[in-house]
């Protein structure tokens, strides 16, 4: 069971690829596709509202373990560059570059593009990703792509098991009321294992809940381990009070003012005290104001592109997170590259 974000620039073939990997389901600013055959279960997420807004991209990435980066025959552009920067700042390691619409290309162009892609990915978390030419019209490369996804899926499953005994964390991506059942959320277990009848808290609204029932692929389960996509029915909270980005857990930090360790992107204008940015953490999203920057313990007014610093942020609303979670700082007014910094919270 693995979740896959299909990302890339406008018209890069994302939706065509997603629709060949699974069956279309829920649509909002992201579109979900499902595939289930035997014990292979894939959830594919197309950030349909990107690049107009960066939020669908951060949502899709926040919901996924594998990234498919779509690059059309025209090659990389500013938007695919922005996608790579987001992947790198979030520290995402598992992915594949898909050279889409390969039927419209030729071996020389594909090879030249692959070389350009490899050089752009150097020094990023995507540096070792396979590059696979795929056509959704002739199906060239589809089998190879599916095999590469399976291989990553196996690797991720092994990694996930390491966290199975940690305290559970479920990131909510949908919530609704079901007649006769009550509040139901859809989400992903990103750590630990959730059990039926377990009592946990939903953050940041800080509401105690009990897990009444667990479903995976519409089948009732007693528990769900790390990496599972789950539907949970909850006692103790109303669906209307639950938002995308809420976290079901036993131990989150909730704050409005925080200090983060920050890597400022070399493809940015840097950071400045007093500026207002947008912050994404897991599936939460909120405006933030930079109230302070320190470099080597010294207060400074600015941090240069490509540098590291500590930033103090005043957040528009309470957010919940754990040590090690990745935060993205975004400048929505930048015309080309909006992801300014990747940050980490350390206790
Ligand atoms: N020949 C060919 N055309 C393709 C292929 N994949 C996509 N296309 C076409 O390319 C165009 C863009 O594909 P989409 O899948 O809509 O791309 P997208 O990235 O979802 O585009 P937006 O959501 O509009 O940004 C469409 O007209 C597709 O029919 C392919 O493998 N071969
Ligand atoms: Mg699309």
Structure overview:
The protein is of the alpha+beta class. The chain has three domains: 2-162, Rossmann fold (3-Layer(aba) Sandwich), CATH 3.40.50; 169-249, Elongation Factor Tu (Ef-tu), domain 3, CATH 2.40.30; 254-344, Elongation Factor Tu (Ef-tu), domain 3 (Beta Barrel). It contains five helices and 25 strands. The strands form five sheets. It has a seven-stranded mixed β-sheet with strand order 2-3-4-1-5-6-7, with helices on both faces. A six-stranded antiparallel barrel has the order 8-9-15-12-11-16. Strands 17-23-20-19-24-25 form a six-stranded antiparallel β-barrel. The radius of gyration is 20 Å and the shape is globular. Guanosine-5'-triphosphate binds at residues 8, 10-16, 48, 100-101, 103-104, 135-137.
Give me a quick take on this structure.
The protein has five helices and 25 strands. It is of the alpha+beta class and 347 residues long.
Point out poorly predicted stretches.
none
Q: Helicity level, as a percent range?
A: 10-25%
Give the terminus-to-terminus CA distance: 32 Å
**What is the general shape?**
globular
- Strand percentage lies at 35-45%
User: Counting H and I runs of at least 4 residues, what is the number of helices?
Assistant: 5
Assigned CATH superfamily of the largest domain: P-loop containing nucleotide triphosphate hydrolases
List bound small molecules. Answer: guanosine-5'-triphosphate, magnesium ion
Indicate how many domains the architecture comprises.
3
Task: Tell me the CATH architecture of the largest domain.
Answer: 3-Layer(aba) Sandwich
CATH class of the largest domain reads Alpha Beta
Strand-and-helix sequence, N→C? EHEEEHEHEHEHEEEEEEEEEEEEEEEEEE
